From TrEMBL:
Region listing for Disordered, in residue ranges: 1-61
Position of the signal peptide: none
Name of the molecule in the record: Regulatory protein RecX
PANTHER family in UniProt: REGULATORY PROTEIN RECX FAMILY PROTEIN
Source organism, top-level taxon: Bacteria
Length: 244
C-alpha cells in the first residue's frame, strides 16, 4: 500500500500596510524657476587666409558624389505593370464585338471607328467588313451621331452654331448633314434665349468689375464669340442689355 502524502502547510503572506502621504497644499503651489543664463555665441570673423593653401593658392572643394539606389519593387503587380504588354492580334469577330460595345456606350462617327481599327492594327481589307456589320446592326449611324453631338453641345455646354460646326467638321461630317442637324435640334427662339441668358449673366458680373461701358461690351462680346455665337446676334442683344 502506498503511503499517503501529508498536505503541505502554506504560510500566509505578510502584507505591509501602505502609508498614505498627508496632504500638504504647499506642495501644489507653483515653484518659481530662475531663467538659465545663456552665453552668446561669438561669430568667427571672416579671414581670407583660412581659404588659401600654404603657397597662397585657393583651396579646391570637391562636390560629394551620391550613389544611385536600386529601389526594389515589393509588389509583383507593380513590376508586371511596368512591363510592356504583348501585342495580340484581334480577329474580325473580336474587333466587331469590341466596337459594338464602344458604340453602345455613346454615339460614334466613322472617324473614331477607323482610328480604333488602325490602333488595333487590323488589316485594311477587314475595315469595310466590320464597318458594314456595325451599320447593319444599327450600332453606327452618322446622322444620329451628328444630331446627338449638336443637341449635347448646345443644351449642356451652351455652345453656339459656329463652334458646333467646327467640331463636326473636324470629325469629317458633311456640311449638309450639319445644317440638317441644326434645323432639327436647335430652335431659333431657344437659341436666342440661351445667348441672352449667357450675356445677361456675364454683363451683371462685369458691372461690379468694369466701370467703362465700352470695355464691358468688348469683354462680353469676346466671351460670346468664344462660345461660338454669331457676331451680329451678339451686338443686337448687347445693345438691348446696355440700354436697360
Amino acid at each position: 500500500m502506498a503511503k499517503k502524502q501529508k498536505p503541505l502547510k502554506r504560510t500566509p503572506l505578510k502584507r505591509t500596510p501602505l502609508k498614505r502621504k498627508e496632504y500638504n497644499p504647499e506642495d501644489f503651489k507653483k515653484k518659481e524657476y530662475k531663467p538659465l543664463k545663456r552665453t552668446p555665441i561669438k561669430k568667427k570673423e571672416y579671414n581670407p587666409e583660412d581659404y588659401k593653401n600654404a603657397d597662397g593658392s585657393k583651396k579646391e572643394y570637391k562636390s560629394k558624389t551620391y550613389k544611385k539606389r536600386d529601389y526594389k519593387v515589393k509588389d509583383y503587380r507593380e513590376l508586371k505593370a511596368r512591363e510592356p504588354k504583348p501585342f495580340v492580334q484581334l480577329t474580325v469577330k473580336e474587333a466587331f464585338l469590341k466596337l459594338a460595345a464602344f458604340c453602345a456606350y455613346q454615339e460614334r462617327c466613322y472617324q473614331e471607328i477607323y482610328a480604333k481599327l488602325e490602333e488595333w492594327k487590323m488589316d485594311e481589307g477587314d475595315h469595310y467588313a466590320i464597318v458594314t456589320l456595325l451599320e447593319e446592326e444599327n450600332f453606327l449611324n452618322e446622322k444620329r451621331f451628328t444630331e446627338s453631338y449638336t443637341r449635347g453641345k448646345f443644351s449642356y455646354k451652351k455652345w453656339g452654331k459656329r463652334k458646333i460646326r467646327y467640331g463636326l467638321l473636324q470629325k469629317n461630317i458633311s456640311e449638309k448633314m450639319i445644317q440638317d442637324a441644326f434645323l432639327s435640334e436647335i430652335e431659333n427662339e431657344e437659341y436666342f434665349a440661351t445667348l441672352t441668358e449667357l450675356l445677361e449673366k456675364k454683363w451683371s458680373d462685369l458691372l461690379e468689375k468694369e466701370d467703362d461701358n465700352f470695355k464691358r461690351k468688348q469683354k462680353a462680346t469676346n466671351y460670346a464669340l468664344q462660345k461660338g455665337y454669331e457676331n451680329e446676334l451678339i451686338r443686337e442683344i448687347l445693345e438691348d442689355i446696355s440700354r436697360n
